[in-house]
Structures are given as structure tokens and as C-alpha cells.
């Protein structure tokens, strides 16, 4: 008997795409758009048994991102953007402090290659915690527990079906779930709009939870600015759909690493050329790269993702201006033209 097809969304939230029925599910699994995507274990075995053609280059490439202290960012009232490593960002927009995908500690299989630019205990004053999806390099239990404890009034903006997972980490967290193309309820007086949008990815944390939690990206709108956080995504037609709905974007935070071998990574992550193409489709005025340099997740050498993206930008194949900050560097995004 075929698994039942349903469509899910948060009925209490506004859906901004006309006639969008919600996220498609087949049985208990969210689809990656219209079709199920389940990474094959055979590809993992193939990866482990195959020889990395860049093995020697990767071993000799000891590059890590520069790190500068940023503890004062959490006590400042100024708008700013700060990369804390991998996909973790502090973004202050219109005086509202947002923290994205915090992974503050090393864990099994995820060892930080560089220092954190602040002590975890200094991460306070967070208004909203935005979680793009449930993979451990974006959603770390120890980090969630610490951030929840230090920011008791913080609200979590999450994808569909993530509340149960989060409440197992921090039972008292205030969680709001959204499906793709849904706008979170921030209250009538908020100067900020936040919408959860598509990404090409998948979910799994254990043996029995394949695709049971949704994944996606975030769009922030403040005044006349559109600010986009891509989360994890392979390249796909969702970028065209986002641009068609919103028009040109001001700032895109785009993932550029963990793309080799392509037979295993291409539906989950973008290489630097694909990330540049996606940013161009989105007509981004400014591009900030992420998802590189912090963890060893794949076969490419550590410095290759940023080096390649810089070559793309220098070759005038990137429409927007590239900003590649040090970890902890404060970016005054509001001054960018």
C-alpha cells in the first residue's frame, strides 16, 4: 500500500505564496520539494572506500579562518553582522538581536578547527534564535541548552516538527514553527519580517527520524532591505522562485563548502560556483560566505571554497560585492550600498 501524501503548514501563520498548499509529506517524511530525497548509505560506503584525488593537497592545507575577539558585540546596541564560524551568525537588525544555527562546542565528528571568537557564556541578549534545520553542524544540543539558559526570554523560530526535538534539549523554550513560504508572527509592532523559505536538503539525527523535521532558509525584511540566510542547500530552482517573489536581495549569506565528492554532496550542498550562481539568480547586492573552514566535513582542501569564490568574484562572475570576514569580525551591514 502506497504511503499517504499530505501537506503541512502552520495554520496560525501567514502563507505568502499564493495557492501554496504547504510542505508535501509522503508518509512521515517531508519531501525535498515534490519528491522524497533520502541520502543513500551506499554513497557513504563508496566515499569511505574511494581514494580522494586531493588527499595530499588536503593534508597539507592547514589554512583556517582568522579569528578576532567579539565579546563586545553581545553588549552593543548597534546593528551588525558577525560570523561566529561555520553557519553560526549574530545578526542585529533594527535593534533586534538574532542568532543563527549555533554550534559553539566541538563534538564527536565535529571538531572546531579554529577558536570561538567569544566565550559561550558571553552569548546573551538574544531576541530570536533561528534554526534552519536539524543537522548537528547547525543544531548542537549543548549549544541549545546554553543559549536557552542564558536567554530565557528568547523566542525560537524553527521549521515544522522541530519543537519536540528542541523541547528534549530545553523544555521551556518558546518555539514557533513555520513551513516554507510562511511568515513568523513577531507581533504587530515589530519592524522586522521573517519568512521561512525553501532549501534543497534533508533531515536526519538518528536511525529512525529520516526527514521527519523540515529544513529551509530565512528571509528578513526591514524597511527597504531584504536579508537572506540560505542555511544548507543544494543548487535548485527554489532560488528562482524566491527571486520571483521578493525581487533583488540586498544581502545573501551563502554556504560554499562541503561539496566533494559531488556524487554524495550535490543535492545537499553547493560548491562555490553554484553558490555564486544562486546569489546571481537572487540578484544579491552583497554576498557573505559561510559553511567552510570550521569543520572537516568533506574531501576538498580547507582553503579551496573561499579561494575559489574569491577567484569567481575577481573574474567578475559574481554580481554582488563579496564580504569574507574573519571569524568574530564586526560587519556594519547597514552601511553597505
UniProtKB/TrEMBL annotation:
GO terms for molecular function: N-acylphosphatidylethanolamine-specific phospholipase D activity; zinc ion binding. The keyword Hydrolase applies. Keywords: Hydrolase. InterPro entries: Metallo-B-lactamas, NAPE-PLD, RibonucZ/Hydroxyglut_hydro. Gene3D superfamilies: Ribonuclease Z/Hydroxyacylglutathione hydrolase-like. The keyword Transferase does not apply. One of its GO terms (cellular component) is cytoplasm. Pfam families: Lactamase_B_2 (PF12706). It comes from the Bacteria. Residues 98-292 form the Metallo-beta-lactamase domain. This is MBL fold metallo-hydrolase. It comes from Hymenobacter qilianensis.
Amino acid at each position: 500500500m502506497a504511503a499517504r501524501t499530505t501537506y503541512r503548514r502552520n495554520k496560525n501563520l501567514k502563507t505568502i505564496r499564493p495557492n501554496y498548499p504547504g510542505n508535501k509529506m509522503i508518509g512521515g517524511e517531508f519531501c525535498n520539494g515534490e519528491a522524497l530525497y533520502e541520502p543513500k548509505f551506499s554513497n557513504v560506503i563508496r566515499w569511505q572506500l574511494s581514494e580522494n584525488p586531493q588527499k595530499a593537497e588536503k593534508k597539507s592545507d592547514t589554512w583556517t579562518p582568522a579569528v578576532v575577539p567579539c565579546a563586545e558585540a553581545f553588549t552593543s546596541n548597534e546593528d551588525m553582522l558577525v560570523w561566529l564560524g561555520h553557519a553560526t551568525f549574530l545578526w542585529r537588525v533594527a535593534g533586534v538581536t538574532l542568532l543563527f544555527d549555533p554550534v559553539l562546542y566541538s563534538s564527536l565528528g565535529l571538531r572546531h578547527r579554529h577558536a570561538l571568537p567569544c566565550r559561550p557564556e558571553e552569548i546573551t541578549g538574544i531576541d530570536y534564535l533561528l534554526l534552519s534545520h536539524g543537522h548537528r553542524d547547525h543544531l548542537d544540543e549543548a549549544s541549545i541548552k546554553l543559549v536557552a539558559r542564558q536567554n530565557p526570554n528568547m523566542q525560537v523560530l524553527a521549521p515544522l516538527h522541530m519543537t519536540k526535538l528542541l523541547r528534549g534539549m530545553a523544555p521551556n523554550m518558546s518555539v514557533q514553527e513555520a513551513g516554507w513560504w510562511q511568515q513568523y508572527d513577531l507581533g504587530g509592532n515589530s519592524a522586522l519580517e521573517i519568512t521561512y523559505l525553501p532549501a534543497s536538503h534533508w533531515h536526519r539525527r538518528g536511525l529512525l527520524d529520516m526527514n521527519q523535521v523540515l529544513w529551509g532558509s530565512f528571509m528578513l525584511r526591514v524597511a527597504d532591505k531584504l536579508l537572506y540566510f540560505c542555511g544548507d542547500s543544494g543548487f535548485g530552482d527554489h532560488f528562482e522562485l524566491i527571486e520571483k517573489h521578493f525581487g533583488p536581495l540586498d544581502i545573501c549569506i551563502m554556504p560554499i563548502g562541503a561539496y566533494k565528492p559531488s556524487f554524495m554532496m550535490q543535492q545537499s550542498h553547493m560548491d562555490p560556483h553554484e553558490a555564486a550562481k544562486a546569489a546571481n539568480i537572487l540578484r544579491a547586492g552583497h554576498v557573505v560566505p559561510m559553511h567552510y573552514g570550521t569543520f572537516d566535513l568533506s574531501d576538498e582542501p580547507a582553503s579551496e571554497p573561499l579561494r575559489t569564490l574569491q577567484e569567481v568574484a575577481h573574474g567578475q562572475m559574481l554580481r554582488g560585492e563579496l564580504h569574507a570576514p574573519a571569524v568574530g569580525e564586526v560587519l556594519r551591514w547597514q552601511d553597505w550600498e
